[in-house]
Amino acid sequence: MAANPRDLLLRPIITEKTSQMMQENKYTFQVPLDANKVEIRQAVEAVFGVKVVNVNTIRVMGKTKRVGKYVGKRSDYKKAIVKLAEGNTIPLFEGM
To answer: 52-75: per-residue pLDDT in tens?
Structure first.
């Protein structure tokens, strides 16, 4: 695990779909590609002081993009969907 658990949670992912998932007590974060489910669980519990029930991870492949004749590629990243125990919430996401 990284020295600081905050280094493992790169940023929250807030979209229309993830906002609906928050009603089910599921929160989505972008994490490093080499992070595993155990490290993600420990980081969320340490940073936010909540009980994590389940962690699902998805590896998202970057899209190929063009600007005129130039072709580039967005970076690959990993998403973690974290389900919290009943009664726990993350105040960072409240009011979204």
So the answer is: 999 999 999 999 999 999 999 999
Q: How far is CA 70 from the centre of its chain?
A: 31
Q: Are 56 and 41 in contact (CB under 8 A)?
A: no
In angstroms, what CA-CA distances link 82 with 2, 89, 91? 19, 11, 15
28: CB partners within 8 A, 6+ apart: 12, 13, 14, 18, 21, 79, 80, 81, 82
How far are the Cα atoms of 63, 67, 71, 72 from residue 12, in angstroms, in the given order? Answer: 20, 28, 28, 25
Contact yes or no for 35/10 (Cβ under 8 A): no
| Pairwise CA distance, residues 33 & 56, whole Å | 14
Query: Helix and strand tally (H, E) in the chain?
Result: 2, 6
- CA torsion sign for 55, 17, 91, 77 is positive
